[in-house]
Design a protein that fits this description.
The structure holds 2 protein chains of 2 kinds. By secondary structure, chain A is of the alpha/beta class. Chain A is built from 10 helices and 8 strands. In chain A, strands 1-2-4-3-5-6-7-8 form an 8-stranded mixed sheet, sandwiched between helices. In chain A, helix 8 links the parallel strand 7 and strand 8. Chain B is built from 10 helices and 8 strands. Chain B starts with 11 loop residues before the first strand and ends with a helix. An 8-stranded mixed sheet of chain B has the order 1-2-4-3-5-6-7-8, sandwiched between helices. Classes of the chains: A alpha/beta, B alpha/beta.
């Protein structure tokens, strides 16, 4: 019997798109359009929580994309969201995918918005988790005390830092964080190399550029007509929930869902609820976000 | 007479705290009852049957007129605290077991107060188009009870946005609240409306300290729904609730004002179903 489709065992594949060579994984099947998953700051294919990807893979193909310069993808990390969106588009072209659904988490949610602006037709429905619009505020300022105390703590290493950063400082949220870390460690083979300082530096530059606005703030969002599901934890220190409020207020067609007692990784903490909501949203054919 | 749905459910009366309160009860008669608390200057016929009947498919739904409203006797309380007291007395008079409470607007001010004072009476909370005590822009200095003279006009302006989709949802809503023909409620008097307006304004005053302290004490599972363009209770109030209640999930609906749960009724009912059926 074949193993169920999972990010724990899906092989990493590679595709040559022009001069670029991207790593990716695809697994799952069903009636739905493929779901392109766009990853967070310094995250690789291995940072996708199987408790989120696997339930969604029962109903559609899930495609995890490793952008340029990350993991085993070749090339260099762009210093703009626009540059990253161009890589994602090239990847979809390489796969021959003309339209898909998108789950963008954090940095990936910015890339998703940019893709919707640059080539609207490539996206049908979009889930934006723990992210911000262009011109959002307090986006990934790792130097601020609430984040720096974890990043500068010599006792914390690797995923233990992620647990502190992605989850709220309550026993219940930290316990959910520990379970999340356990799940990420369950994939034993065919793992991606961990991102180094050059990746972080380039992506940080992209965040700084994304905070800048030319012209009217949030005007871009009005032209994203796609049905959107916006998700965030109310205690997100990395990209505060106010950014999700702006998405909800300014996107013409977005449902906002927030979770209590949680931070940046609310979708991982409440994976049962999130995947149920996300699956209902993605299963809808309605042109409107309500599903 | 059928007791399954909103339209035919007979108006009943119960003596509670010195008033004779009008109420209706319909839907499933097993499981945790769901008490609905109404909005400003509204009697039972103002509940959207699409919403109440949707809830009644799985729930034992109870709607009630506050004292002095509809066919309830007594004087309408002019503070949220006194309104809360009436709701507590009502639920005791009906000998309700532990219930779920859903409050819309004014009703959503009473619901947390009730749970704060009597945490053991309530299982789960649903808050629609409402805000915390001392919320943002909730003293309603612009609102006059004279606006109630044009009820349909006020509903269209306050509950729905100017988009075609929302306006069309508004007209459908106005048609639905008329589908109950017999045994309808009495109109709300201006003096009762003024008392409720006073209650809302008092609730809206920002306290000098510990602005949202009460919310931190309410650990009940809570579902908050709101329209992203609510012109009556600004969405920031839903954000404040979600950020200060320790166990609240927030859902904001697009292109929707104060009547978000009616405009997006199917989705709202599905969200409520998931929420109320979740394991404790």
């Amino acid at each position: 019997m074949s193993k169920p489709a999972s990010n724990l065992n899906a092989p990493t594949e590679f595709i040559q798109c022009g001069k670029e060579r991207y790593a990716y994984r695809r697994f799952g099947e069903g009636q739905g359009l493929p779901l392109l998953c766009l990853q967070h700051f310094t995250g690789t294919l291995d940072n996708w929580d199987p408790a989120v990807t696997d339930p969604l893979a029962r109903g559609r193909e899930v495609i995890l994309f490793e952008s340029a310069g990350l993991g085993r993808s070749a090339g260099t990390v762009p210093e703009t969201i626009g540059g990253m969106a161009a890589h994602a588009r090239a990847f979809l072209d390489g796969l021959g995918l003309k339209i898909c659904d998108v789950l963008g988490f954090s940095l990936g949610g910015m890339v998703a918005q940019q893709m919707a602006l640059d080539r609207s037709s490539v996206i049908r429905r979009m889930i934006l988790a723990g992210t911000a619009p262009r011109g959002g505020e307090d986006i990934m300022h790792l130097e601020k005390p609430s984040l720096a105390r974890h990043l500068g703590n010599p006792e914390l290493k690797g995923y233990a830092i992620l647990q502190k950063l992605f989850f709220a400082p309550t026993p219940s949220s930290q316990a959910a964080g520990a379970a999340f870390v356990d799940r990420l460690m369950q994939r034993r083979q065919d793992r991606e190399p961990i991102s180094g300082p050059a990746v972080a530096q380039a992506q940080m530059a992209a965040f700084r550029e994304w905070e800048k606005v030319a012209g009217e703030r949030f005007a871009d969002l009005k032209s994203i007509r796609h049905p959107v599901l916006v998700v965030n934890g109310v205690h997100d220190e990395m990209i505060p929930v106010s950014n999700s409020y702006w998405l909800s207020a300014n996107l013409p067609n977005a449902v906002l869902l927030t979770y209590p007692d949680s931070g940046h990784g609310s979708l991982f903490q409440f994976h049962d609820s999130f995947t149920r909501q996300a699956a209902a949203f993605l299963a809808s054919d309605s042109p409107y976000a309500p599903y | 007479m059928s007791n399954d749905t909103h339209e035919p459910a007979p108006t009943q009366f119960v003596q509670a705290g010195g008033s004779r309160l009008a109420y209706r009860r319909f839907g499933q008669r097993e499981g945790t009852p769901l008490l609905l608390l109404n909005y400003f200057a509204a009697h039972m016929d103002a509940w959207d049957p699409k919403v109440t009947n949707g809830l009644a498919q799985e729930r034992d739904v109870i709607i009630v007129d506050y004292p002095g409203i509809g066919r309830s006797s007594g004087t309408t309380p002019a503070t949220a605290t006194d309104l809360t007291k009436c709701c507590v007395e009502f639920s005791r008079a009906l000998k309700l077991p532990k219930f779920d409470v859903a409050g819309f607007s004014l009703g959503g001010m009473i619901a947390p107060q009730l749970v704060f004072e009597h945490p053991d009476m309530v299982r789960r909370i649903i808050l629609m188009g409402t805000g915390p005590r001392g919320g943002e822009g909730m003293v309603f200095t612009d609102l006059s009870i004279d606006e109630l003279d044009d009820e349909a006009g006020l509903i269209m302006k306050a509950f729905f946005t100017s988009s075609d989709a929302s306006k069309s949802a508004g007209h459908a809503y106005l048609a639905r609240v008329k589908t109950r023909i017999a045994d309808r409620d009495e109109p709300v008097s201006k003096s009762s409306a003024m008392a409720q307006l006073a209650a809302i304004r008092e609730w809206g005053v920002i306290p000098s300290k510990d602005r949202f302290a009460m919310l931190g004490q309410i650990s009940h599972p809570t579902l908050i729904v709101h329209g992203n363009k609510d012109v009556v209770v600004m969405p920031i109030n839903a954000f404040l609730l979600a950020e200060h209640l320790p166990n609240a999930q927030l859902i904001i609906y697009p292109d929707a004002s104060h009547g978000a749960q009616s405009q997006h009724a199917e989705l709202f009912l599905e969200h409520v179903r998931l929420f109320l059926n979740a394991r404790d």
